[in-house]
Amino acid sequence: MAIIGVDVSKLSLVAVRTSSTGIVKESFEIPNTAVEIGTWLDQLQGKHKYLLVASEATGDYHNTLAKACLSRGIKFRLLNPILTKQFNRATIRKRKTDLTDSEIIAKLAIQGEGSIVSATTFAPSKAIHRATIRLVKVKQALERMSTRFNEMFPEENAVNQQLSNCVELLGESCIKLRKEAKIKTDPKLRKLLTSIPGIGEHVVVTLINEINDIGRFPSPKSLVAYAGLDPRVKQSGTSLKHNTHITKRGSVYLRRDIFIAASIASRWEPEIKNYFEKKLGEGKRYREALVAVSRKLLNRVYAVWKRGTPYERRLTTTGA
Description:
Elements: E1 2-8, E2 12-18, E3 24-31, H1 34-47, E4 51-56, H2 63-71, E5 75-79, H3 81-90, H4 98-110, E6 115-116, H5 124-152, H6 157-183, H7 187-193, H8 201-211, H9 220-226, E7 231-236, E8 239-246, H10 252-268, H11 270-281, H12 286-307
Parallel strand pairs: 1-4, 4-5
Antiparallel strand pairs: 1-2, 2-3, 5-6, 7-8
């Protein structure tokens, strides 16, 4: 198999082809346009029967490459940029060029890092949902601005009214976009996952759109890692140490919403509340206990989604 590691920028792609053992065979530089990328991939497919292309997530700049690979049946693996930075820091020479980045990306892809991109990755519901989350943050910032301005200059009626109008308009847009994202998200899957205590109507849309396909995660631990809720590990010689900090890699949208769900469920949902209080009783701090609840919720999501049957409450609260 030929492994293609690609460092993507707005205008160009710098790539290397390696063997399955990570030995660099050749390098390329291609304009980041659909036509040039298509021609390059066609040439590669003509020479190599099996291809795996990998790049970092770089805003929208990698989308043209990913879509070109999908249309040709080429596996495309998308990596978190944090991984390449960590890999580079771990090397002795710590070189930083486009070619070395491409080589690092190829080596990480060989190790199975990153996620395989599918057609659902480019589903409109995901983009709409993420746009809604960003817009909600803008609305919250504008609300704070409006409140402060009104407190400082209550006599400025025209300005205060205009700010209030902006907040109201943004609020209406958020509601409409959230509704649109929900409509475009699989209703059967929504119903299935909301059978899990603690998973509500808003969170389930985030889960489906951020996870996309549960089949790309081989275990619940890999899903937890994708949400960035796995603990950091430090190793020195034979000493292996887990600390209380989480990695925060993967989907920030998934991590944020599952944490919010855990926070609400730990107060109002009996099963989750008991588990949360148990963790506090074990000496964990508030935030650590919430992270544990978040992991538990994701474990349940994984099991229910994989099994395809609704969550069933157990008589005891010690089960998953």
